[in-house]
Amino acid sequence: MLSKDHLVMLGAATINGEYSARRPYNTAWGDDCKLLKELETLGLMEFVSFDRDPLTKEFARRSRITDAGNDAWQQEAKKAD
């Protein structure tokens, strides 16, 4: 069962096709990265890249929504209606 936070992340990914978890330099990753990794483990998202902005030194982990992720989002959206 997906949590509300997982569904919010999948919903955002359906709009852009991907989701990016970001963190400032020299800080820990937040809950959004943990949720993203959980969705990747479930096969609903797939890892794309890990980048660092040279100007701000901010880190970003990007993942793309999979077909299974789109299906899961659509099913949950139908339940909500």
Low-confidence stretches: none
* Strand element count: 3
Helix run count: 3
Structural class, from helix and strand content? alpha+beta
Give the strand line-up of the largest sheet: 1-3-2
Question: Quick one: biggest sheet?
Answer: 3 strands, antiparallel
- Roughly what percent helix? 40-55%
Q: Strand percentage, roughly? A: 25-35%
Q: H/E order of the elements?
A: HEHEEH
How far apart lie the N and C ends?
18 Å
Mean pLDDT: 92
Global morphology: elongated
| Oligomeric category | single chain
Radius of gyration: 13 Å
Can you put this structure into words, describing what you see?
A 3-stranded antiparallel β-sheet has the order 1-3-2. Strand 2 and strand 3 (59-65) form a beta hairpin. It is of the alpha+beta class and 81 residues long. The protein is built from 3 helices and 3 strands. The mean pLDDT is 92.
Which secondary structure elements does this structure contain, and how are they paired or packed?
Blueprint: H1 4-16, E1 18-23, H2 31-41, E2 45-52, E3 59-65, H3 67-80
Antiparallel strand pairs: 1-3, 2-3
Summary, kept brief:
This protein is an alpha+beta fold. It has helices spanning 4-16, 31-41, 67-80, and strands at residues 18-23, 45-52, 59-65.
Essential attributes:
three-stranded antiparallel β-sheet; about 80 residues; elongated; 3 helices; about 25% strand; alpha+beta
